[in-house]
Design a protein that fits this description.
four-stranded mixed beta sheet, globular, alpha/beta, 2,3-Dihydroxybiphenyl 1,2-Dioxygenase, domain 1
Length: 137
């Protein structure tokens, strides 16, 4: 029986740049950074308060699972902001927005009141966007 989600994949254009963004701007911690035989780098990060979740910062490079043609298509889509990568929960959306903006994080939407809470939309350095949400209650 499935018990929980342990890993989620976010496709990134450059792993070094993504590492810097997720760790130094969003404040996540590195969970695993290992280069395997053949040069493939397995890089995962996660929120400090959620140790059982690893976000895989997956490079868009040709592999047995993805052809050069598919990689080119995916790189174009990621850079264009075609993928919403998830929801990042916060206790204070407006404060997080101010702090992250001051660190150079790009936002597509300022904090806005919604039926489910206060939400801002941020974009990572590859083009993936996230909902930064302060839930009601």
């Amino acid at each position: 029986m499935i018990q929980k989600l342990s890993h989620a994949i976010i496709y990134v254009l450059d792993q070094d740049s993504a590492h810097d963004f997720y760790v130094h701007k969003l404040g996540m911690e590195v969970r695993m950074d290992h280069t395997m035989e053949g040069g493939f780098r397995w890089l995962t990060v996660g929120p400090k308060g959620q140790p059982d979740l690893e976000i895989v910062l997956m490079p868009l490079t040709p592999s047995p699972m993805m052809s050069e043609e598919r990689v080119a298509q995916m790189r174009q889509l990621v850079a264009a902001g075609a993928f919403g990568a998830g929801v990042l929960k916060t206790d204070d959306c407006r404060k997080a927005y101010e702090e992250l903006s001051a660190q150079g994080v790009k936002f597509l939407q300022e904090p806005t009141e919604r039926f489910y809470g206060i939400e801002a939309l941020l974009v990572d350095d590859s083009g993936n966007w996230f909902s930064l949400t302060q839930p009601l209650g």
